[in-house]
Amino acid sequence: MEQQVEQTVVAESTPPTGFKVILREFKKDKLAMFSFVFITLLIVGVMITAFFFVDQEAAMKINLLERYTEPGTAGYILGADEAGRDILVQLIIGAKNSLLIAISVTVISAIVGISLGIVTGYYGGFVDSLFMRIIDFFMTIPTLMFIIVFVTMIPKYTTIHLILIISIFAWVGTARLVRSKALSESRRDYVNASKTMGTSDFAIMFKGILPNLSSIIIVDLTLSFAGNVGIETGLSFLGFGLPPSEPSLGTLVSYATNPIVLAEKWWVWLPASLFILLMMLGINYVGQALRRAADAKQRLG
């Protein structure tokens, strides 16, 4: 009997894992749970449809006889644009391109930002000062303007060029956040004990400190993903994003700059606008739930 009571006390005193805290937060917030399921199904559905059921080359062929065909007419579910191209197919391909770019930029910036942030926070001193001056420099420059300049400098740029150009500036926020947290973690007792036992710095940074920053990193990557989608669609809207041969959500929305299209041909730009709006709202709700979970995990230790 006493053993059972002791096991119960130990179980209650043990802080929950990060996954349990996140799951508990999502169970309490039904809107965040719905948003997570919705975004997951949306991304998976777009990727499967774009890669296996859509022929991009055939979809981008010009057919002036079907110019501005209204939704539900001649087999066009969402209508056609000024070149007679199917809006639904362009929406699927554009969403796939925008999501792949955002995912790629998020992964690259996460690898660079997390690595530099942990290294600078762990070593401190001269290393920290040097990298912080570099980070401060990147944070002071007008990012969007430099991206546009780099895009215009490359005569025949591709999607890979756009990903690399955006990634040059996207790692800064992650590095600054991880550095501030790693700086405090590096002063904790378990780090000093690991150093005393002769554990290598690499093992301490990436096997000891990094797991303790996982909650904050997940939140940051979720919000960074939404921001990267916004950057890509914004650049495409301005005409400095994907090449003209590659559909994008921003390109579809940019048709609304034509007053006639904005007022009378709503099916050309509205579906992409609603897609971006719903996706951003969903990511925002998921990010808020993850942030609350990270704060709860930090309070629980």
TrEMBL record:
Superkingdom per UniProt: Bacteria
Pfam (any one): OppC_N
InterPro entries: BP-dependent_transpt_permease (IPR050366), MetI-like (IPR000515), MetI-like_sf (IPR035906), OppC_N (IPR025966)
Subcellular location: Cell membrane
GO BP annotations, alphabetical order: transmembrane transport
Positions of the ABC transmembrane type-1 domain: 95-287
A GO term from the CC aspect: plasma membrane
Primary localisation category: membrane
Transmembrane helix is among the record's keywords: yes
Parts of the chain that traverse the membrane: 31-54, 99-122, 134-154, 160-178, 209-231, 266-287
Keyword Ligase on entry: no
Membrane topology classification: Multi-pass membrane protein
Keywords linked to the UniProt accession: Cell membrane, Membrane, Transmembrane, Transmembrane helix, Transport
Family listed: Belongs to the binding-protein-dependent transport system permease family.
Listed name of the protein: Peptide ABC transporter permease
Protein source organism: Lysinibacillus alkalisoli
Annotated gene: oppC
